[in-house]
Amino acid sequence: METKLFNNLLGILLNVVFPIKMLLRLYSFCILMVDIAWVVFNAVCAILQAVYELFRPPPLKSVRLETALVIGSGRGVGREIAIQLADLGAIVLCVDKNSTSNDSTIECIKSKGGSAVGYTCDITKKENVQMLAAQLKKDVGFVSMLFYCCGIPSPRSLMTQPPQDIHDTLDVTLTSYFWFIDHFLPDMKAKNHGHIVALTSVAGLSYIKDQMPLSVAQFAVQGLAESLTEDLRVNKIDGVHVTLTHIYPFVVSDESANIKLRIPSYFGTITPSKAAKSILESVRRNYFEASVPKHLLYLGHLLRILPRKATVLIRDLLDTGVDFA
What we know:
Layout: H1 2-55, E1 67-71, H2 76-87, E2 91-96, H3 99-111, E3 115-120, H4 126-139, E4 145-148, H5 155-160, H6 166-191, E5 194-201, H7 212-234, E6 240-247, E7 259-260, H8 264-267, H9 272-284, E8 289-292, H10 295-305, H11 308-317, E9 323-324
Parallel strand pairs: 1-2, 1-4, 2-3, 4-5, 5-6, 6-8
Antiparallel strand pairs: 7-9
Helix pairs in contact: 2-3, 2-9, 4-6, 6-7
Protein name: Epidermal retinol dehydrogenase 2-like
Organism: Trichoplusia ni (Cabbage looper)
Transmembrane segments: 31-52
């Protein structure tokens, strides 16, 4: 009798619990479907927005009275960025280890009525970066824009010089960049205002022959920029932006007149001034990633999703085939 009663009670209990479990599973499944639908909807919206912005880019933001720190302002693209920032009304802080070329940049800016201050620093030494950061904060206070233009090789150095020392390459291209971010990013986060710009060679999109240390360092800079962007997103800081720009060194160079390219009509050549203008346009539109020339960015994205064999074939086709006259 007791056994029969126990079995009856157990049966009633199971009949009650089983539907509850089913309902909980159904509820969880419904929540999952809603989350998936929400992600798909937002992904489609993001794709449509990206396509729309190809034809109607975001408006250019003003950099007037922004305090812009340009590391590597003595020559090339860094020099042109500093000059054009000053033309746009920014207060430019020029940093380079070559005082003569850096002074030339400052003189050019001031001759056009711009505002610039120069600092000489070997950024490969941490203590130098610390001293420079302390001096900058003392002189100007808040640095709202950081342009890191170091580590971009010239075409001739890529072809005529031996592969770079691993430590020197990483120090110039990546480690020093970390140090500057450590010093200036916290203030940007606190004010929820700022822009960090990293320039890399196209080695950050694809390997350059016989330049493994450089390629590894440039890939690392891309990873740093993406990690930094994710850190800002997770911490809900929407006023600080990051822009990563890949520069094809055989296209942007004062020495390009003596360089023969395999496909001139595809690559072409542009001056550092035009390259700087393109970079600043991407920065002022708050783009995360850009390239000089612009079409190489889409090529880089394409190479990431294609099968390995197809990627190798395209790289062989578009290999620079560089030769010097």
